[in-house]
């Protein structure tokens, strides 16, 4: 069970601390971090740019939100 | 009934609704935990491969199948599977597209209530008061607070505290909000809510991210625990064993399984939700760009926000031990302890848990709509009646989850059998239906109807061969690792066994409903195969 496992891990946190000095950003760490985040941001910006600048954009406005679509029982 | 067919109001609305369905607690809690545990930065290689080879193609397949089914006036998985598969048997496999969201909702709405309850506890100071001033006790006190909050020690309505327990009160509130929004309908309920909730969620995440990245070295007595070391713990590629090069992690099958599982669950493919949402599109509405945009939005929340917040923050305050653990452990045990150390505890605690609440509610809403659509189109009943029926079923199931709170056994059992195993099964069935029954090339052409982006030509090959193979391999290894233990657990009886009986009962009930609805559709010849690609919708637009 993840909750109980986490509880035991948290209990370990109170134990004498291990040497954490080895956790420093390495060149490969930077590459993976910047590469992953950069890829996702580029894809997301590209997608939203395409969606928002599409010449068809106005055709996707099916109905203003304030019009009651009668999708409820009356 | 003579009612107007529902459609989405705006394109951004449907994208945000699908993205909202996908973005959940897993983006902020499960992904960072999995990545840091399975190879750190190296995890991202199998992660992106699985995204390209399974998740995005399957997303496009679901969007395409949903829009196709919508042309016949259908919005639920059983009906759409019946139309695409052209055999009644496919309708029954589509029942999984109802069972999964309904049963996952039963526990997910409770977790959603925890998030809102925690946000309220930070706002009022209740949790900070409970944690006390002794920093050495934060970890233990946060665990104790969670255990009391959810009644983890024993069964009973949150350990016999009754209806006035905060977890139960927030469950009632959240349950009511979900059904109120569903009752308002697709456009005025789900879409309007997601258009507001998704940007607010992003703002909340940016606020917490800014706080985490500007913490510097929060405890001068521990100079090795700072922002950069937190990021290093998350992003430095980790070898499979000390002394080996970092890429040795890629030879570890568990890393590939973990990455494929994370991508797969994160994008909500195999839930039956995307099919339902896409069925409200019009026949020439784009699905390729919209599907990719929804997927990229989910990835943005997961990689860019989740990947920079949770584990680095936990590492900065609690070290390696604190930065490990599963979704609930990180979310409700570790992070409250971390927030206790952080300046501005109450403000950032509220913002963080409110953000998780928004992530959860945009997902839970999407779990209700498939069943609402099924009841409406299968039995010609109105919104009020369908909401009442579904409300009763899910309330009973959710009450079961809350009552059997010891060790969160009921929740855990549903999450395993439905929220994990059955999702693999449904995803595999979907990809077979799309790639082999509907036809990969036909599906490729159907996806491009009104498309504003071209799918690579390799897509038919990927969806027909690569995606199902990848899924089956992952599922086989997952089953090999997990099923024996779970089956053993069943033999001991108790709550896990009762829970499986509950799930089985819901499944049989849905099968019976599908049989009745299918007879009705057949009598109306609504699910007859199309005579041509230009087959008109039998109802509505």
N- to C-terminal distance of chain B: 15 Å
Largest sheet of chain B: none
Specify Rg of chain A, calculated over alpha carbons. Answer: 25 Å
The count of helical stretches of chain A stands at 2
- By CATH reckoning, the class of chain B would read Mainly Alpha
Strand content of chain B: under 5%
Here the CATH topology of chain B equals Hydantoin permease
Order of helices and strands of chain A: HH
What would you call the shape of chain A? rod-shaped
Approximate strand percentage of chain A: under 5%
Low-confidence stretches of chain A: 1-15, 64-70
Kindly describe this structure:
The complex is a heterodimer of chains A (74) and B (541). Chain A has 74 residues and is mainly alpha-helical. Helix content of chain A is 53%, strand content 0%. Chain A has two helices and no strands. The longest helix of chain A has 27 residues, at 27-53. Chain A is rod-shaped and about 60 Å long. Chain A starts with a helix and ends in a 21-residue tail after the last helix. Mean pLDDT of chain A is 70; it is low at 1-15 and 64-70. Chain B has 541 residues and is mainly alpha-helical. Chain B has one domain: Hydantoin permease (Orthogonal Bundle). In chain B, helix 3 packs antiparallel against helix 14 (288-322) and helix 16 (345-379) packs across helix 17 (383-403). The two termini of chain B are 15 Å apart. In chain B, 61% of the residues are buried. At the A-B interface, helix 1 and helix 2 of A face helix 1, helix 8, helix 10, helix 11 and helix 14 of B.
């Amino acid at each position: 069970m993840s909750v109980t496992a986490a509880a035991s891990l948290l209990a370990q946190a109170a134990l004498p601390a291990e040497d954490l000095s080895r956790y420093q950003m390495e060149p490969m760490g930077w590459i993976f971090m910047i590469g992953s985040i950069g890829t996702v941001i580029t894809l997301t910006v590209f997608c939203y740019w395409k969606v928002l600048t599409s010449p068809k954009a106005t055709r996707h406005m099916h109905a203003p939100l304030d019009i009651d679509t009668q999708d409820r029982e009356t | 009934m003579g009612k107007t067919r529902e459609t989405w109001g705006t394109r951004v609305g449907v994208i945000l609704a699908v993205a909202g369905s996908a973005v959940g607690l897993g983006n902020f809690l499960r992904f960072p935990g999995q990545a840091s545990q399975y190879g750190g930065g190296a995890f991202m290689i199998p992660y992106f491969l699985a995204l390209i080879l399974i998740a995005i193609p399957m997303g496009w397949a679901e969007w395409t199948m949903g829009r196709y089914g919508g042309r016949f006036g259908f919005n639920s998985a059983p009906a759409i599977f019946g139309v695409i598969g052209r055999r009644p048997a496919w309708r029954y496999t589509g029942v999984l597209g109802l069972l999964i969201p309904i049963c996952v909702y039963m526990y997910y709405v409770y977790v959603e209530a925890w998030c809102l309850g925690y946000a309220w506890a930070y706002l009022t100071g209740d949790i900070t008061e409970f944690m006390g001033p002794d920093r050495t006790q934060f970890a233990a006190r946060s665990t104790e607070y969670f255990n009391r909050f959810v009644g983890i020690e024993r069964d009973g309505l949150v350990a016999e505290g009754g209806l006035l327990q905060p977890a139960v009160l927030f469950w009632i509130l959240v349950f009511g909000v979900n059904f109120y929004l569903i009752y308002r309908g697709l456009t005025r309920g789900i879409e309007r809510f997601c258009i507001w909730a998704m940007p607010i969620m992003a703002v909340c995440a940016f606020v917490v991210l800014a706080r985490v990245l500007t913490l510097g070295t929060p405890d001068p007595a521990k100079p090795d625990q700072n922002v950069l070391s937190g990021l290093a713990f998350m992003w430095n590629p980790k070898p499979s064993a000390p002394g080996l090069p970092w890429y040795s992690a890629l030879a570890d099958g568990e890393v590939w399984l973990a990455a494929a599982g994370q991508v797969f669950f994160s994008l909500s493919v195999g839930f039956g939700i995307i099919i339902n949402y896409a069925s409200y599109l019009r026949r020439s509405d784009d699905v390729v760009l919209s599907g990719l945009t929804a997927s990229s939005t989910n990835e943005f929340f997961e990689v860019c926000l989740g990947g920079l917040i949770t584990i680095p923050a936990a590492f900065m305050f609690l070290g390696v031990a604190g930065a490990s653990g599963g979704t609930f452990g990180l979310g409700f045990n570790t992070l409250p302890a971390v927030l206790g150390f952080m300046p501005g505890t109450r403000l950032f605690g509220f913002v963080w848990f409110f953000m998780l609440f928004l992530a959860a509610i945009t997902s839970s809403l999407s779990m209700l709509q498939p069943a609402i659509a099924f009841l409406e189109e299968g039995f010609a009943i109105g919104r009020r009646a369908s909401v009442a029926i579904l409300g009763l079923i899910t309330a009973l199931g959710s009450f079961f989850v809350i009552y059997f709170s010891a060790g969160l056994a009921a929740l855990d059992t549903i999450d395993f059998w439905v929220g994990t195993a059955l999702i693999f099964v449904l995803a595999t069935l979907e990809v077979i239906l799309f790639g082999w029954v509907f036809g990969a090339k036909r599906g490729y052409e159907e996806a491009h109807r009104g498309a504003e982006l071209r799918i690579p030509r390799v897509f038919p090959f990927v969806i027909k061969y690569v995606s199902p193979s990848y899924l089956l391999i992952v599922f086989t290894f997952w089953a090999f690792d997990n099923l024996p233990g779970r089956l053993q657990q069943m033999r001991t009886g108790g709550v896990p066994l009762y829970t499986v009986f509950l799930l089985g009962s819901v499944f049989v009930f849905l099968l019976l409903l599908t049989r009745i609805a299918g007879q009705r559709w057949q009598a109306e010849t609504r699910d007859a195969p199309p005579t041509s690609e230009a087959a008109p919708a039998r109802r509505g637009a």
